[in-house]
Protein backbone atom coordinates (compact mmCIF):
# COMPACT_ATOMS: atom_id res chain seq x y z
CA UNK A 1 0.00 0.00 0.00
CA UNK A 2 1.03 3.59 -0.30
CA UNK A 3 3.23 4.48 2.62
CA UNK A 4 4.76 7.67 1.21
CA UNK A 5 2.65 10.77 0.63
CA UNK A 6 1.25 14.02 1.83
CA UNK A 7 0.81 13.01 5.48
CA UNK A 8 4.62 13.25 5.77
CA UNK A 9 6.05 16.78 6.03
CA UNK A 10 9.29 15.65 4.35
CA UNK A 11 7.21 14.37 1.38
CA UNK A 12 5.38 17.69 1.05
CA UNK A 13 8.73 19.47 1.01
CA UNK A 14 10.13 17.41 -1.88
CA UNK A 15 6.78 17.45 -3.68
CA UNK A 16 6.85 21.27 -3.59
CA UNK A 17 10.31 21.32 -5.19
CA UNK A 18 9.20 19.11 -8.11
CA UNK A 19 7.33 20.74 -10.97
CA UNK A 20 4.56 18.13 -10.81
CA UNK A 21 3.70 14.70 -9.47
CA UNK A 22 4.95 12.85 -12.57
CA UNK A 23 8.12 14.92 -12.55
CA UNK A 24 8.68 13.59 -9.03
CA UNK A 25 8.14 10.01 -10.26
CA UNK A 26 10.67 10.51 -13.08
CA UNK A 27 13.43 12.18 -11.06
CA UNK A 28 15.36 9.22 -9.62
CA UNK A 29 17.12 11.13 -6.86
CA UNK A 30 13.87 12.59 -5.51
CA UNK A 31 11.76 9.48 -6.09
CA UNK A 32 14.38 7.35 -4.29
CA UNK A 33 14.41 9.78 -1.39
CA UNK A 34 10.60 9.72 -1.14
CA UNK A 35 10.61 5.89 -1.25
CA UNK A 36 13.00 5.85 1.70
CA UNK A 37 11.20 8.48 3.81
CA UNK A 38 8.71 6.12 5.49
CA UNK A 39 11.46 3.52 6.03
CA UNK A 40 13.63 6.07 7.83
CA UNK A 41 10.77 7.03 10.12
CA UNK A 42 8.98 3.76 10.77
CA UNK A 43 11.60 1.07 9.96
CA UNK A 44 9.12 -1.06 8.02
CA UNK A 45 10.29 -4.48 6.83
CA UNK A 46 9.73 -3.53 3.20
CA UNK A 47 9.82 -0.40 1.07
CA UNK A 48 7.45 0.16 -1.83
CA UNK A 49 8.84 1.96 -4.84
CA UNK A 50 7.60 5.52 -5.19
CA UNK A 51 5.95 5.75 -8.61
CA UNK A 52 2.34 5.51 -9.76
CA UNK A 53 0.15 3.08 -11.67
CA UNK A 54 -0.51 5.84 -14.25
CA UNK A 55 3.08 5.97 -15.53
CA UNK A 56 1.98 3.21 -17.94
CA UNK A 57 -0.60 5.31 -19.86
CA UNK A 58 1.89 8.18 -19.76
CA UNK A 59 4.59 5.91 -21.22
CA UNK A 60 2.19 4.74 -23.94
CA UNK A 61 1.77 8.35 -25.04
CA UNK A 62 -1.56 9.29 -23.42
CA UNK A 63 -1.58 12.74 -21.83
CA UNK A 64 -1.65 12.32 -18.01
CA UNK A 65 -1.55 15.05 -15.39
CA UNK A 66 -2.13 15.24 -11.66
CA UNK A 67 -4.11 18.27 -10.61
CA UNK A 68 -3.88 19.52 -7.03
CA UNK A 69 -7.02 18.59 -5.12
CA UNK A 70 -8.53 16.77 -8.10
CA UNK A 71 -6.33 13.75 -8.65
CA UNK A 72 -5.34 12.35 -12.03
CA UNK A 73 -6.68 13.82 -15.29
CA UNK A 74 -6.13 11.99 -18.60
CA UNK A 75 -7.01 12.85 -22.15
CA UNK A 76 -9.50 9.97 -22.49
CA UNK A 77 -9.12 7.00 -24.82
CA UNK A 78 -12.59 6.56 -26.34
CA UNK A 79 -12.32 4.68 -29.65
CA UNK A 80 -10.22 2.48 -31.89
CA UNK A 81 -8.29 5.44 -33.26
CA UNK A 82 -7.31 6.50 -29.73
CA UNK A 83 -6.17 2.94 -28.96
CA UNK A 84 -4.16 2.87 -32.20
CA UNK A 85 -2.29 6.00 -31.06
CA UNK A 86 -0.86 4.18 -28.03
CA UNK A 87 2.71 3.13 -28.68
CA UNK A 88 4.01 0.18 -26.58
CA UNK A 89 7.47 0.52 -28.11
CA UNK A 90 7.97 3.70 -26.01
CA UNK A 91 7.29 2.03 -22.67
CA UNK A 92 10.67 0.84 -21.48
CA UNK A 93 12.62 3.87 -22.67
CA UNK A 94 10.13 6.25 -21.09
CA UNK A 95 10.24 4.37 -17.79
CA UNK A 96 14.05 4.19 -17.56
CA UNK A 97 14.08 6.81 -14.75
CA UNK A 98 11.80 4.55 -12.66
CA UNK A 99 14.27 1.67 -13.10
CA UNK A 100 17.07 3.98 -12.02
CA UNK A 101 15.03 4.86 -8.91
CA UNK A 102 14.73 1.14 -8.11
CA UNK A 103 18.50 0.73 -8.47
CA UNK A 104 19.20 3.68 -6.21
CA UNK A 105 16.77 2.55 -3.55
CA UNK A 106 18.14 -0.99 -3.56
CA UNK A 107 21.67 0.35 -3.06
CA UNK A 108 20.60 2.50 -0.14
CA UNK A 109 18.30 0.06 1.66
CA UNK A 110 19.73 -2.26 4.30
CA UNK A 111 19.93 -5.86 3.01
CA UNK A 112 17.17 -7.06 5.32
CA UNK A 113 14.61 -4.52 4.03
CA UNK A 114 12.82 -5.82 0.93
CA UNK A 115 11.98 -3.57 -2.01
CA UNK A 116 8.53 -4.04 -3.56
CA UNK A 117 7.90 -2.95 -7.13
CA UNK A 118 4.36 -2.51 -8.42
CA UNK A 119 1.97 -1.77 -11.24
CA UNK A 120 -1.75 -1.26 -11.75
CA UNK A 121 -3.78 -4.16 -13.13
CA UNK A 122 -5.11 -3.62 -16.67
CA UNK A 123 -8.77 -3.12 -15.60
CA UNK A 124 -7.87 -0.41 -13.05
CA UNK A 125 -5.40 1.35 -15.36
CA UNK A 126 -7.88 1.14 -18.26
CA UNK A 127 -10.55 2.73 -16.05
CA UNK A 128 -8.43 5.88 -15.67
CA UNK A 129 -7.50 5.81 -19.37
CA UNK A 130 -11.10 5.54 -20.57
CA UNK A 131 -12.91 7.57 -17.90
CA UNK A 132 -10.24 10.29 -18.15
CA UNK A 133 -9.60 10.21 -14.39
CA UNK A 134 -11.18 8.91 -11.21
CA UNK A 135 -14.75 7.73 -11.61
CA UNK A 136 -17.81 7.31 -9.43
CA UNK A 137 -19.78 4.71 -11.36
CA UNK A 138 -17.42 3.46 -14.11
CA UNK A 139 -20.24 3.85 -16.62
CA UNK A 140 -17.98 4.98 -19.47
CA UNK A 141 -15.49 2.11 -19.24
CA UNK A 142 -18.20 -0.49 -18.66
CA UNK A 143 -20.42 0.56 -21.54
CA UNK A 144 -17.38 0.93 -23.83
CA UNK A 145 -16.01 -2.49 -22.90
CA UNK A 146 -19.40 -4.12 -23.52
CA UNK A 147 -20.19 -2.25 -26.75
CA UNK A 148 -16.70 -2.50 -28.23
CA UNK A 149 -15.42 -5.79 -26.87
CA UNK A 150 -12.80 -6.29 -29.57
CA UNK A 151 -11.38 -2.82 -29.20
CA UNK A 152 -11.37 -3.09 -25.39
CA UNK A 153 -9.56 -6.43 -25.67
CA UNK A 154 -6.92 -4.77 -27.87
CA UNK A 155 -6.39 -2.10 -25.20
CA UNK A 156 -6.17 -4.76 -22.46
CA UNK A 157 -3.61 -6.66 -24.57
CA UNK A 158 -1.47 -3.53 -24.88
CA UNK A 159 -1.67 -3.03 -21.11
CA UNK A 160 -0.80 -6.67 -20.36
CA UNK A 161 2.26 -6.52 -22.57
CA UNK A 162 3.61 -3.17 -21.39
CA UNK A 163 2.85 -3.87 -17.73
CA UNK A 164 4.69 -7.22 -17.79
CA UNK A 165 7.71 -5.52 -19.39
CA UNK A 166 7.52 -2.75 -16.77
CA UNK A 167 7.48 -5.27 -13.90
CA UNK A 168 10.40 -7.21 -15.35
CA UNK A 169 12.32 -3.95 -15.72
CA UNK A 170 11.76 -3.32 -12.02
CA UNK A 171 12.98 -6.83 -11.14
CA UNK A 172 16.10 -6.40 -13.26
CA UNK A 173 16.77 -3.13 -11.47
CA UNK A 174 16.48 -4.74 -8.02
CA UNK A 175 12.83 -5.16 -6.96
CA UNK A 176 12.45 -8.32 -4.85
CA UNK A 177 8.66 -8.67 -4.81
CA UNK A 178 5.91 -7.21 -6.96
CA UNK A 179 2.39 -6.04 -6.25
CA UNK A 180 -0.41 -5.70 -8.80
CA UNK A 181 -3.06 -3.17 -7.74
CA UNK A 182 -6.56 -3.82 -9.04
CA UNK A 183 -8.20 -1.14 -6.91
CA UNK A 184 -11.40 -1.08 -8.97
CA UNK A 185 -11.78 -4.84 -9.59
CA UNK A 186 -14.95 -4.75 -7.47
CA UNK A 187 -16.70 -2.63 -10.12
CA UNK A 188 -16.46 -5.26 -12.86
CA UNK A 189 -19.76 -6.99 -13.70
CA UNK A 190 -19.61 -10.53 -12.26
CA UNK A 191 -20.09 -12.14 -15.68
CA UNK A 192 -17.00 -10.31 -17.01
CA UNK A 193 -14.77 -10.88 -13.97
CA UNK A 194 -12.79 -13.73 -15.57
CA UNK A 195 -12.21 -11.80 -18.76
CA UNK A 196 -11.42 -8.35 -17.39
CA UNK A 197 -9.78 -9.11 -14.04
CA UNK A 198 -8.50 -12.68 -13.85
CA UNK A 199 -7.29 -13.27 -17.40
CA UNK A 200 -5.21 -10.08 -17.88
CA UNK A 201 -3.66 -10.47 -14.44
CA UNK A 202 -2.93 -14.16 -15.09
CA UNK A 203 -1.20 -13.23 -18.36
CA UNK A 204 1.00 -10.69 -16.57
CA UNK A 205 1.85 -13.15 -13.77
CA UNK A 206 2.73 -15.90 -16.29
CA UNK A 207 4.88 -13.59 -18.33
CA UNK A 208 6.81 -12.31 -15.28
CA UNK A 209 7.19 -15.85 -13.87
CA UNK A 210 8.67 -17.07 -17.14
CA UNK A 211 11.67 -14.79 -16.68
CA UNK A 212 11.67 -14.24 -12.92
CA UNK A 213 10.19 -17.41 -11.39
CA UNK A 214 11.41 -16.67 -7.84
CA UNK A 215 9.95 -13.20 -7.43
CA UNK A 216 6.80 -13.30 -5.27
CA UNK A 217 3.80 -11.53 -6.77
CA UNK A 218 1.10 -10.07 -4.51
CA UNK A 219 -2.34 -9.41 -5.98
CA UNK A 220 -4.66 -6.74 -4.61
CA UNK A 221 -8.15 -7.11 -6.01
CA UNK A 222 -10.18 -4.63 -4.01
CA UNK A 223 -13.88 -5.07 -3.37
CA UNK A 224 -14.26 -8.47 -5.01
CA UNK A 225 -15.81 -10.24 -1.99
CA UNK A 226 -16.34 -13.95 -2.55
CA UNK A 227 -14.60 -13.84 -5.89
CA UNK A 228 -11.21 -13.46 -4.16
CA UNK A 229 -10.75 -17.23 -4.09
CA UNK A 230 -11.25 -17.60 -7.83
CA UNK A 231 -8.93 -14.59 -8.31
CA UNK A 232 -6.19 -16.40 -6.34
CA UNK A 233 -6.65 -19.68 -8.20
CA UNK A 234 -7.11 -18.11 -11.62
CA UNK A 235 -4.27 -15.56 -11.59
CA UNK A 236 -1.46 -17.58 -10.00
CA UNK A 237 -0.45 -14.77 -7.62
CA UNK A 238 1.68 -15.92 -4.67
CA UNK A 239 -0.10 -13.81 -2.04
CA UNK A 240 -3.02 -11.41 -1.75
CA UNK A 241 -3.49 -8.02 -0.16
CA UNK A 242 -6.83 -7.88 1.66
CA UNK A 243 -9.16 -4.90 1.70
CA UNK A 244 -11.15 -4.25 4.88
CA UNK A 245 -14.41 -5.82 3.69
CA UNK A 246 -13.39 -9.09 5.34
CA UNK A 247 -12.69 -9.49 9.07
CA UNK A 248 -9.32 -10.97 9.98
CA UNK A 249 -11.16 -14.02 11.35
CA UNK A 250 -12.91 -14.56 8.00
CA UNK A 251 -9.60 -14.15 6.18
CA UNK A 252 -7.95 -16.69 8.49
CA UNK A 253 -10.68 -19.16 7.78
CA UNK A 254 -11.27 -18.66 4.05
CA UNK A 255 -8.17 -17.18 2.45
CA UNK A 256 -5.08 -17.96 4.52
CA UNK A 257 -5.39 -21.74 4.03
CA UNK A 258 -4.98 -21.29 0.27
CA UNK A 259 -2.69 -18.27 0.09
CA UNK A 260 -0.46 -15.99 2.23
CA UNK A 261 -2.28 -12.78 3.11
CA UNK A 262 -1.33 -9.17 3.64
CA UNK A 263 -3.55 -6.69 5.43
CA UNK A 264 -5.93 -5.43 6.48
CA UNK A 265 -6.22 -2.47 8.86
CA UNK A 266 -8.59 0.10 7.40
CA UNK A 267 -6.68 3.42 7.03
CA UNK A 268 -9.51 5.17 8.94
CA UNK A 269 -8.28 3.44 12.12
CA UNK A 270 -4.80 4.78 11.45
CA UNK A 271 -6.23 8.26 11.05
CA UNK A 272 -8.08 7.99 14.39
CA UNK A 273 -5.27 6.29 16.34
CA UNK A 274 -5.48 5.58 20.08
CA UNK A 275 -7.32 2.61 21.57
CA UNK A 276 -9.53 2.06 18.52
CA UNK A 277 -6.48 1.59 16.32
CA UNK A 278 -4.71 -0.55 18.87
CA UNK A 279 -7.67 -2.90 19.31
CA UNK A 280 -8.19 -3.27 15.56
CA UNK A 281 -4.48 -3.89 14.89
CA UNK A 282 -4.25 -6.46 17.67
CA UNK A 283 -7.32 -8.26 16.40
CA UNK A 284 -5.67 -8.65 12.98
CA UNK A 285 -2.41 -9.81 14.57
CA UNK A 286 -4.28 -12.29 16.80
CA UNK A 287 -6.26 -13.80 13.97
CA UNK A 288 -3.64 -13.99 11.25
CA UNK A 289 -0.26 -14.50 12.94
CA UNK A 290 -0.76 -18.26 12.99
CA UNK A 291 -0.32 -18.57 9.22
CA UNK A 292 1.57 -16.91 6.37
CA UNK A 293 0.92 -13.21 6.96
CA UNK A 294 2.28 -9.70 6.38
CA UNK A 295 0.73 -6.95 8.49
CA UNK A 296 -0.38 -4.06 6.29
CA UNK A 297 -3.11 -1.53 5.74
CA UNK A 298 -6.20 -2.39 3.70
CA UNK A 299 -5.55 0.68 1.52
CA UNK A 300 -3.00 3.53 1.35
CA UNK A 301 -2.34 6.02 4.15
CA UNK A 302 -4.83 8.91 4.04
CA UNK A 303 -3.30 12.39 3.76
CA UNK A 304 -4.84 13.62 7.05
CA UNK A 305 -3.21 10.87 9.10
CA UNK A 306 -1.15 12.06 12.09
CA UNK A 307 2.43 10.79 11.73
CA UNK A 308 2.51 9.76 15.40
CA UNK A 309 -0.31 7.26 14.78
CA UNK A 310 1.83 5.53 12.14
CA UNK A 311 4.75 5.48 14.59
CA UNK A 312 2.51 3.92 17.24
CA UNK A 313 1.17 1.31 14.82
CA UNK A 314 4.71 0.31 13.83
CA UNK A 315 5.52 -0.12 17.56
CA UNK A 316 2.45 -2.29 18.12
CA UNK A 317 3.27 -4.58 15.21
CA UNK A 318 6.95 -4.80 16.13
CA UNK A 319 6.24 -5.61 19.76
CA UNK A 320 4.09 -8.52 18.61
CA UNK A 321 6.79 -9.69 16.17
CA UNK A 322 9.25 -9.89 19.04
CA UNK A 323 6.89 -11.94 21.23
O1 LIG B 1 3.78 4.98 -0.88
C1 LIG B 1 4.46 4.81 -1.88
O2 LIG B 1 5.60 5.21 -1.97
C2 LIG B 1 3.84 4.01 -3.00
C3 LIG B 1 3.68 4.72 -4.25
C4 LIG B 1 2.28 4.68 -4.88
C5 LIG B 1 1.63 5.84 -5.35
N1 LIG B 1 0.51 5.44 -6.01
C6 LIG B 1 2.10 7.23 -5.20
C7 LIG B 1 1.06 8.31 -5.18
C8 LIG B 1 1.49 3.57 -5.19
C9 LIG B 1 1.71 2.11 -4.83
C10 LIG B 1 0.36 4.08 -5.92
C11 LIG B 1 -0.67 3.21 -6.49
C12 LIG B 1 -1.88 3.83 -7.08
N2 LIG B 1 -1.99 5.02 -7.76
C13 LIG B 1 -3.14 3.19 -7.11
C14 LIG B 1 -3.44 1.78 -6.62
C15 LIG B 1 -3.47 1.68 -5.13
C16 LIG B 1 -4.54 2.50 -4.48
O3 LIG B 1 -4.16 3.39 -3.68
O4 LIG B 1 -5.71 2.27 -4.76
C17 LIG B 1 -4.04 4.06 -7.76
C18 LIG B 1 -5.51 3.80 -8.01
C19 LIG B 1 -3.30 5.21 -8.18
C20 LIG B 1 -3.80 6.36 -8.96
C21 LIG B 1 -3.66 7.63 -8.23
N3 LIG B 1 -2.46 8.23 -7.89
C22 LIG B 1 -4.70 8.47 -7.74
C23 LIG B 1 -6.19 8.19 -7.88
C24 LIG B 1 -4.09 9.57 -7.12
C25 LIG B 1 -4.77 10.78 -6.54
C26 LIG B 1 -5.35 10.51 -5.20
C27 LIG B 1 -4.58 11.25 -4.14
O5 LIG B 1 -4.43 10.68 -3.04
O6 LIG B 1 -4.19 12.38 -4.39
C28 LIG B 1 -2.68 9.36 -7.19
C29 LIG B 1 -1.65 10.27 -6.66
C30 LIG B 1 -0.60 9.66 -5.82
N4 LIG B 1 0.14 8.54 -6.15
C31 LIG B 1 -0.13 10.17 -4.59
C32 LIG B 1 0.91 9.33 -4.18
C33 LIG B 1 1.77 9.50 -2.95
C34 LIG B 1 -0.68 11.44 -3.93
C35 LIG B 1 -0.24 12.67 -4.70
C36 LIG B 1 0.67 13.54 -3.88
O7 LIG B 1 0.69 13.40 -2.66
O8 LIG B 1 1.39 14.35 -4.44
Poorly predicted spans:
none
- Ligand species: coproporphyrinogen III
Question: What kind of sheet is the major sheet?
Answer: 7 strands, parallel
Q: Find the CATH topology.
A: TIM Barrel
**Radius of gyration of CA atoms, rounded to a whole number:** 19 Å
Distance between the termini: 25 Å
Query: N-to-C SSE series?
Result: HHHEHEEHHHEHHHEHEHEHEHHEH
CATH level 1 class label? Alpha Beta
Mean pLDDT score:
97
Structure overview:
With 323 residues, the chain is of the alpha/beta class. The chain has one domain (9-241): TIM Barrel (Alpha-Beta Barrel). 53% of the residues lie in helices and 13% in strands. The protein has a seven-stranded parallel β-sheet with strand order 1-4-5-6-7-8-9. It has a two-stranded antiparallel ribbon with strand order 2-3. Strand 7, helix 13 (248-254) and strand 8 (261-265) form a beta-alpha-beta unit. It is globular. The model has no long low-confidence stretch (mean pLDDT 97). Bound molecules: coproporphyrinogen III. The site of coproporphyrinogen III has 23 residues, from strand 3 and strand 4.
Amino acid sequence: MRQAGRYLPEYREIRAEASGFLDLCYTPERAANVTLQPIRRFHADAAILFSDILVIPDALGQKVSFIEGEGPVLNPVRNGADVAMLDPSRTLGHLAPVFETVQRVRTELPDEVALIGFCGAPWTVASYMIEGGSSRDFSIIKSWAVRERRCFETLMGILVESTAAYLLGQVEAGAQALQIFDTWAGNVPARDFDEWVISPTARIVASVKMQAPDIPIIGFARGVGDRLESYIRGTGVDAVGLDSSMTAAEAAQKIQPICPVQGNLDPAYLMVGGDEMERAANEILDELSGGPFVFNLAHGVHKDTPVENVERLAEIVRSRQAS
